[in-house]
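Q: Could you predict the 3D structure of Type 12 methyltransferase?
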Amino acid sequence: MDAYTSFAQVYDLFMDNVPYDEWCAYICETLKKHGIADGPVLDLGCGTGELTRRLAACGYDMTGVDVSVDMLQKAMEKQTDPPILYLLQEMQTLELDGCVRAVCCTCDCVNYVLEPQELSDAFRRVAACLESGGVFIFDMNTAYKYEQLLGDHTFAESRQEGSFIWENYYDEETRINEYDLTLFIPEAGELYRRYAETHYQRNYKVEQIVDFLQQAGLVCEGMYDDYTDAGVKADSERITFVTRKE
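A: Sure. Here are the predicted C-alpha cells for Type 12 methyltransferase:
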C-alpha cells in the first residue's frame, strides 16, 4: 500500500508527541530575523496540517502541500478562518500560482524522497517558488538516527483508539530505511481492522544536501541540532537547515 493511507486515520493520535508548538515558534522567530513577519508561506509535506494551522494563527497566509490524499483530507477537516489552501502535489514537481516568502518542510519529509535527482529537483522547485531573499527551512533525519536508534528495531504502542507495530530495516549499503507498519484500528463494537503499509526513507549525507542546495541557488545559512540554536552534534537525531534564496 502507499504510505500514509490507513496511517492517516490515526496519525495525530500516535504523533501527539511531535513538538509542533516549539517548531512553530522556532520557524516564526527565524522568519522574523529575515524580515518575514507575514505574507504567503508554504508548508511542504504538511500532513494533517497541525503545523500549517499554527503558522496561520501566527499571521502567515498559509498553503499546505502534501502527496497523500488521506493526510490532506484530515487537514481539511480542521476548519480555520480564513480557510487554508491545501494542494495535492509531489515535492519534485511543485508548482504554485505566484511566489511565497518562505517554505518550511518538517518531520523528515525530505528523507521520503528516495532518488537523489528527485530531491535535487525538489530543491529547484522550492527555489522557483520563493521570492528573492526568501527563506527555506527544512529538517532531515541523521545517519546516527538510522544506524543507532532505528536500525533493525521494532516499536509498538497500544491504546484504546488503536495500536501499531513499527518494524525498521536499515541497509547501510543502499542507505535506505524501510518501515513496515501494521495498524489495528477499531471499527464497530469490539472489532479491530488490520491495515499494513510500508514506508521508505533515504539517509542523505549532509554534503550531498548542501550541494543540491547550491545547485538550486539556495544559500545554506546554518545547520542546527533539531529546532534549536545549538550546532549539530555526533548524536544529533535531526538536522534543521536554514537556507535563503540568492
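Q: Anything worth pointing out?
A: The helical segments are 11-14, 20-33, 50-57, 69-77, 116-129, 143-150, 206-215.
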